[in-house]
Amino acid sequence: MEKAFLVRIEGRVTGVGFRYSALAHAAGLPELRGYVRNVAYGRVESWVQGPEDQVENMVNWLRHGPSCAVVTDMTISPVTLRADLPHFTIE
Q1: Is residue 88 part of a domain?
Q2: What is the pLDDT of residue 54?
Q3: Which of 2, 13, 79, 88 has its CA 20 to 30 A from that of 49?
């Protein structure tokens, strides 16, 4: 079953390779679709969509990010599946 979440991540998550590390992690989850991007106030946002196990894997990775990131807060919101996401990208 497919699931989709919008994940907002706060902490030391910009300038530490968070987006590129997220893209590399997503590459190991071949059916995962969505994006990761920097947003206002030094936060990162990620749309994570795909099979339940791959979505859970990615959301769990986002809880800590790369080794030099420090995630202090994370909001996970269920969202409606999108048909316009062919793969996982950096926006």
Answers
A1: no
A2: 98
A3: 13
